Amino acid sequence: MSERWKVSTSGRDSLVADFRPWLGRLGRRRRRLWLGGALMLLTAAAGIGLLALSGWFITATAVTGALIAAGVAATLEVYVPGGGIRAFAVTRTVARYTERLYNHDTVLRVLADLRADLFAVLVRLDGQALSRLRAAEWLNRLTADIDTLDGLYLRLLAPPVVALLAMLAVVGLLGLMAPPVAWGAGLVLMALWGWLVIGQPAWGMAPGQREVATRDRLRSRMIELLQGLAELRGYGTLAPRREGLAALSRRLYADQRRLASRQGVAQALVGFGVSAAAVLALWLGARAHAAGQIGAATLVMLPLAVLALGEVFGALPGAFTRLGGTRAAARRLNALVATSGRIRPPRDARRLSEVMPALALEGVTLRYPDALTAALDDLSLTLHPGERLALLGASGAGKSSIGQLLTREIDPSTGRVTVDGTDLRQVSLDDLRERIACLTQHSELFQASVADNLRLADPEADEAALWRVLEAVDLAEWARSLPEGLETRVGESGRRVSGGQARRLALARVLLRPADVVILDEPFTGLDEATAARVAARLDTWLAECSVLYLAHDASRLPGVTRALTLSEGHLR
Amino acid sequence: MLAENTTPRAWLAELAGRVRGWLWLTGAAGLLAGLCTVAQMGLLAWLVDQLVTRSRDPAELSPAFGLLLGVLALRAVAQWAQERAGFEAGRRVRERVREQLLDHLVALGPVGLGDRHTAGLGQQWVEQVEALDGYFARFLPQLGLVMALPLVILAVVAWLDWLAALLLLASAPLIPLFMALVGMGAERLNREQFESVTRLAGHFLDRVRGIATLQLFNRAQESTREVYIAADDYRRRSLRTLRLAFLSSAVLEFFASVAIAVVAIYIGFGLLGYIAFGPADSLTLFSGLLILLLAPEFFQPLRTLSQHYHDRAAALGAADGLVALLKEPAEAPFQTATGSREAPFQTATGSREAPRITLRGVTLRHRGRDACLGPFDLSVAPGECVALVGPSGSGKSSLLQLLGGFLAPEGGEATITPRGPAAWMDQRPWLVQGSLADNLRLAAPMADEAALWQALREVRLDGLVAGLPAGLDTPLGERGVGLSGGQAQRLALARVFLAEALLLLLDEPTAGLDADTEAAVIEALQRLMRRGATVVIATHQPALCAAADWVLELTSMDASREAADV
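The joint structure predicted for all components is written out below.
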């Protein structure tokens, strides 16, 4: 992928390194981010101005009023400050509304960028990494992690900057009027800001990261318990297993309690710190007032301006105490991006010749990490042009791995996979997959119409072609009976198709692809005998022009097999 | 199990009742913090008044400054206590719900769970229960504060200047309106957001799940573009909603800002003596400034509540799913010979004799199906091995589930005497993340290493494990990643040896295995039978039938059956 995704794998364990790829992502929307931040600042400034000017106004009127009451001819220009107060009130409301809308728009744009970029990485992963991805709990975690990082800007990036700028502006204002006040309040506020942005994350880091990890473990332990309910009840060992789960929950709660408590401390600190800074400003201001350096109205305005900072500081404790959780999400996604299981297309790829190719495994050994034994052990095999080879074996024997090797979804640990004698690693990936059509073990239908699902194989296919392949898999009649015909949506959010129908749709999709070699992994799973026989007969004619590799556990229903081999525990028999 | 008529709201209310003490404590701490704020503002205004109007020296006022810092410290403690007590309320609810849910899922049993996705249930048990937290920890206490704090502030303001109080009160009747507005806005926002987020996440997951297919059809680039387009489309649609939804909080914001502005101008003009009616002429800098400082606090509780509104929506959404799950009726437990209705096999203290199984006229009703299976008559002597054969749907698995105690008979009588631990195994061997030893000890937590090795020897896995560098401590990935199908099945079988169970219930234990592995499994089974265990196997593998003492053939969906000695 692009340079921006470079993830430090050198073991540098810094927070910045963990977030750098994500900050880089945001950089693309720099202008929007600055503008959104400016709007936040404007909202904060209007809030501060409203309170400070109101305080100033009331004090000024009180002083003037007292003078008038004492018979001194005093006047106060009321229209400018009155107008200012109204303007601040309206600005605050409008700016806030605009800011929220604008920044949510930005966040959603970032979300779209993030998803697309991450998908671009995932789509290059090899079959082995993908098989891990397929687990439902893993997918849930992935979306949760992305959601966590979507809010990076709105929760972690903009608020501290806005708080810092608003604080500097207020302190600067104080400095113009009464420098000692600015120093006093500024130091307190700066210390508070520093603690919230640097100290607080450090304090919450360990429990925050642990909390996310414990939650993950709790989820998988629970899933395991549910899967093994029959065994556990039978053996009478449910109680100790539940006790383990309860102990893990207690650990989760303990870390959550720490986080809540520390966040509470931070919130209390914001309340205390901002108010204390205001009190300090009043104290120092009072001395300046006594010394005749500042007027009464200014004396009141200073602490009120400080007090109004409470709102911008209030946004910091939550997000920064829980930075550990956000970091954990970033690290997991970084690890995913850095996954080594990636198919690298060759630099100067060779094109395949036009004739029907021969595919071969030459002394291939395939070893999955963590596996006790090799999935394929020094295996050699050739699929000659035009033949129909059936590779038979029990589940887990390694058949599907062979399919993945031939389409270069995975690369062998040792040995080579060749097409017409050329190593697959030197052949253009697009070219190879153009020529080989493969029905995988799982029928992967997408949430889209029947037509769209089929056209994955050939975007140019016209309707007649779609009907022809549906005919071949005995689904044409079914499709004609649907009110929306080919436009009927299938997949999770659409019409529920049975396992057998899904299988046949996936098969139709493979047939739509004009390929030289067709690999069919258990093509008749979920089909009843009669349907399987009908489809097999049509398949026989349909596949007349190609080489075929069947992967199945028995050969009984496969049409036109010319040669059969049996695979067992990674060896050919 | 929950009553049929329990609504999610009622369930949440019932849960709130259980942590009422903590909710009160949270609210009380919040109230104390609010009162401290009032005191803080009062002191601040008083100090300003003293400094400006009375021109007092700051040094003379240091006790008041000290008191002010004390009030701030007290407020900090109260704020912390509010957070902490709120957490406790939320945690207690979550702990209780997890407990309740797990009890219920166990009671539903393997049959009741049926083909529900365990990943989905795990997600519900962890994430959906987590989503209840904010409602109890933050929303409910804040709801109380919204009622109490503005009244306190209004009273103080009224005492200072009744007209200013009226100005605030003028917006008070609007507060219920705000709340409804905020509620509607937030609720709608949440619902629509939730739906479209779910749809978008669904789209993304759908494509991720199908990546292998996209790769094979050379569609990687197009699909990446599609992912972007879907997300961008989602953005456009949700902005339409947000534009309206944010209005409700903008209105709240507007009133809070305008209240400050109006109060400030009213007080200023009053102090100048421009207002000739009402209490305005008795305004002082102290009362005027205090009213100004209290005006935003009057609205603050409501603003906080609107921030917590999504907690409520999240909790209601979660409660929907959880209540539906909790309402699912659990199977009545197995009727044991002694007539006690406790679930069978819970205790391993049974006698060391193999059990005798007697079924008389037992009928079974499968979940969600109308057809009744049976009646079955079956008598298995201690130490006998019977194979149940028949086409799918004939009730092989249901009979095993009955014997396992996961399914109650519809009619007839079923007894297993004496009761002891029962080993259960089906075609998908159950493995957990952990070491090989952990996986074996699932059946016998106290087993020593020698016993583990003995069990591995019985299933001929000892050689393989001995060859591993970490031996018994070799870790297995999630769901036994790293083992082949046959190895996994034999590992599960080793557990059966380890449990020393005298009743074995096996559902298609050799399905999907090749002939060699099947032979190894059958050989191990025969060793188990020689120990005198009573064995019931549902299968359609001829080799396994041949190993049984006799075969019971079940015919499809009706009562007729034949027992024939082989």
